[in-house]
């Protein structure tokens, strides 16, 4: 497995302002997910992403990259053994996949993503 970057996510203090800015700057199609406070970013070709309001009002707005892994639990433990701080333990997004968030020994944050092989993206 090549471990590509598969998703990029913006945690922002002002979701409406971020949506207006990025949809004006780029030809991104933004889609609010029903029943969730989450907006998908469809970029056409290439890696897409999402946006959401940060849960910590004191945290600065920031982008986070997600890297594909075969097994989120195994990759998270490997990261821990190599000196990473685990910011968020492996968490399931029901029916879609699993992710964790790590901070490498230099302090850089990255998310690990395992897609559920049974997941079928809804057709718009």
Please, could you describe this protein's structure?
This protein is α+β, with helices and mostly antiparallel strands. It folds into 2 domains: 1-65, 2,3-Dihydroxybiphenyl 1,2-Dioxygenase, domain 1 (Roll), CATH 3.10.180; 69-124, 2,3-Dihydroxybiphenyl 1,2-Dioxygenase, domain 1 (Roll). Helix content is 17%, strand content 41%. The protein has 2 helices and 8 strands. The protein has an 8-stranded mixed beta sheet with strand order 2-3-4-1-5-8-7-6, with helices on one face. A hairpin with a 5-residue loop joins strand 7 and strand 8. It starts with a strand and ends in a 9-residue tail after the last strand.
Give a brief outline of the structure.
The protein is built from two helices and eight strands. By secondary structure, the protein is α+β, with helices and mostly antiparallel strands. The protein has an eight-stranded mixed beta sheet, with helices on one face.
Keywords:
8 strands, 2,3-Dihydroxybiphenyl 1,2-Dioxygenase, domain 1, 8-stranded mixed β-sheet, 17% helix, 41% strand, 2 domains, alpha+beta, single chain, 124 residues
Poorly predicted parts: none
**Order of SSEs, N→C?**
EHEEEEHEEE
CATH architecture of the largest domain: Roll
**In this structure, how is the largest beta sheet organized?**
8 strands, mixed
Write the layout of secondary structure elements.
Layout: E1 5-12, H1 15-25, E2 29-32, E3 39-42, E4 49-53, E5 62-68, H2 72-81, E6 85-93, E7 97-103, E8 109-115
Parallel strand pairs: 1-4, 5-8
Antiparallel strand pairs: 1-5, 2-3, 3-4, 6-7, 7-8
């Amino acid at each position: 497995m090549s471990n590509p970057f598969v998703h990029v996510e913006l945690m922002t203090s002002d979701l409406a302002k971020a949506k207006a800015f990025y949809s004006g700057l780029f030809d991104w199609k933004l889609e609010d997910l029903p029943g969730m406070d989450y907006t998908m970013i469809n970029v056409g070709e290439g890696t897409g992403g999402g946006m959401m309001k940060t849960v910590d009002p004191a945290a600065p707005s920031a982008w986070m990259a997600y890297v594909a892994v075969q097994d989120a639990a195994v990759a998270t433990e490997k990261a821990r053994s190599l000196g990473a701080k685990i910011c968020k333990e492996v968490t399931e997004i029901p029916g879609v996949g699993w992710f964790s968030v790590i901070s490498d020994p230099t302090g850089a944050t990255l998310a690990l993503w395992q897609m559920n092989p049974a997941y079928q993206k809804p057709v718009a």
